[in-house]
C-alpha cells in the first residue's frame, strides 16, 4: 500500500487518535495538513512527521465554521497543489445526563462533530470534484453513535448523524470516484482515561506496555496505533470499491457494522388503529425489542482499578 503523491487533511490531529492517523498517512507517503486549535500542539505534530522524513503543514483553527473548512482545503492546495484524502476527526465532549445538559453543551458538540464534518466534507468534495481524480472521505464515528451511551445525548446524536451523512455521500459522490466511509474506533483516549473500567489498559498504554488480552481480544479495545492502519487502507487505491460503510476497529478486532434494516414488517388492511396495534403489533414489537448501549463483561479481579 502506498499513498505517495497523495495529499491528506486530518482534522483534530494535534494529538491522540488524530495524530496517529496523520502520522500513519505520512508514513505511507502522503503529505498531511495537520489541524488543531493550539498552535504549539500543531507545531509538535508537524515536527513529528517532518522529523521522520515526511511532509506536513498546519492550520490552527477550530473545526465547525465554513471558514475553517475553506482554510484547510486552501492550505492543502497552497502547500501541495492538490487534495486526495480528508479525515474528519476533530471533536469535543460535554458529557452529562439529559436533564442537566445545557443548550451550550448540546450546541458545542453538535457544532464541532456534526457541522464540522459537514462543512469540511462539503469543501473537500467541491475541490475534489473540480480536480477530477476521485478522492477519499473518512469520517470518524463512535460506538456511542451506533449503540447509545449514558450521559452522551449530544455526542450520540452527532456520531449517529455522521454515519447517516456518510451513507448519503457515498451515493452522491460515487460518480466522481470519491468514496465516503466511517471508522468506529475503540481505543485509549483522553476520554477513556477517565473511565475506571479501562484503568489497566490505559495505564499499560501510558507505560508503553502491551495491553492485557482481556481488552485487546475480549473487548476489541486497543491503542491509537491499532486504528491508524484502517485509515490508511481506506485512503488507498486498494479500497477504491469500498464506500458507504461503517467499519469498527480496536485492539485485535475489526467489525463491519450493518446498516439499519427492518426486523419485522407487519401489514393491517386499512391501516393501523389502536385496537390493531394492541392486539397484533404489540406482541410482535415486544418479542423483537432491540438492545441499546454497549455491554461490557465484568473485569477480572487482577484488572480491577485501584480503590480510592
Describe the structure.
- With 308 residues, the chain is α/β, with parallel strands linked by helices.
- It has a single domain, classed as Rossmann fold (3-Layer(aba) Sandwich).
- The chain is 44% helix and 14% strand.
- The protein has 10 helices and 8 strands.
- The protein has an 8-stranded mixed beta sheet with strand order 3-2-1-4-5-6-7-8, sandwiched between helices.
- Helix 4 (103-131) links the parallel strand 4 (85-88) and strand 5 (135-140).
- Helix 1 (16-27) crosses helix 9 (224-235), helix 3 (66-80) packs parallel to helix 4 (103-131) and helix 4 runs parallel beside helix 6 (153-172).
- The longest helix is centred in the middle third of the chain and has 29 residues, at 103-131.
- It is globular and about 70 Å long.
How many helices?
10
Report the radius of gyration as a whole number of Å: 21 Å
Compute the separation of the termini in Å.
47 Å
The shape is globular
SSE ordering: EHEHEHEHEHHEHHHEEH
Q: Beta-sheet strand percentage? A: 5-15%
Provide the CATH architecture. Answer: 3-Layer(aba) Sandwich
Helix content: 40-55%
Might you state the CATH topology name? Rossmann fold
Family: Belongs to the short-chain dehydrogenases/reductases (SDR) family.
Domain Ketoreductase: 6-189
Keywords: Oxidoreductase
InterPro entries: KR_dom, NAD(P)-bd_dom_sf, Peroxisomal_Beta-Oxidation, Sc_DH/Rdtase_CS, SDR_fam
Amino acid at each position: 500500500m502506498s499513498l505517495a503523491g497523495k495529499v491528506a487533511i486530518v482534522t483534530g490531529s494535534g494529538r491522540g487518535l488524530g495524530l496517529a492517523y496523520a502520522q500513519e498517512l505520512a508514513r505511507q507517503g502522503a503529505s498531511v495538513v495537520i489541524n488543531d486549535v493550539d498552535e504549539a500542539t500543531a507545531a509538535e505534530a508537524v515536527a513529528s512527521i517532518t522529523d521522520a522524513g515526511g511532509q506536513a503543514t498546519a492550520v490552527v483553527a477550530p473545526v465547525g465554521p465554513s471558514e475553517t473548512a475553506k482554510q484547510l482545503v486552501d492550505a492543502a492546495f497552497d502547500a501541495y497543489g492538490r487534495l486526495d484524502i480528508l479525515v474528519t476527526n476533530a471533536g469535543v465532549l460535554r458529557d452529562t445526563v439529559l436533564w442537566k445538559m445545557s443548550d451550550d453543551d448540546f450546541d458545542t458538540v453538535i457544532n464541532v462533530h456534526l457541522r464540522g464534518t459537514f462543512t469540511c466534507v462539503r469543501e473537500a468534495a467541491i475541490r475534489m470534484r473540480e480536480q477530477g481524480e476521485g478522492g477519499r472521505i473518512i469520517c470518524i464515528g463512535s460506538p456511542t453513535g451506533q449503540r447509545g451511551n449514558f450521559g452522551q445525548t449530544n455526542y450520540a446524536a452527532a456520531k449517529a448523524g455522521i454515519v447517516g451523512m456518510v451513507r448519503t455521500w457515498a451515493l452522491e459522490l460515487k460518480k466522481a470516484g470519491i468514496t465516503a466511509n466511517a471508522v468506529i474506533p475503540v481505543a485509549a483516549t483522553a476520554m477513556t482515561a477517565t473511565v475506571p473500567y479501562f484503568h489497566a489498559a490505559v495505564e499499560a498504554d501510558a507505560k508503553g506496555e502491551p495491553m492485557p488480552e482481556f481488552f485487546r481480544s475480549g473487548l476489541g479495545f486497543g491503542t491509537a496505533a491499532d486504528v491508524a492502519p484502517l485509515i490508511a487502507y481506506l485512503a488507498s487505491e486498494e479500497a477504491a470499491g469500498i464506500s458507504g460503510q461503517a467499519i469498527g476497529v480496536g485492539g485485535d478486532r475489526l467489525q463491519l457494522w450493518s446498516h439499519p434494516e427492518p426486523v419485522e414488517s407487519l401489514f393491517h388492511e386499512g391501516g393501523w388503529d389502536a385496537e390493531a396495534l394492541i392486539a397484533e403489533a404489540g406482541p410482535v414489537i415486544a418479542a423483537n425489542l432491540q438492545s441499546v448501549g454497549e455491554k461490557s463483561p465484568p473485569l477480572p479481579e487482577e484488572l480491577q482499578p485501584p480503590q480510592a
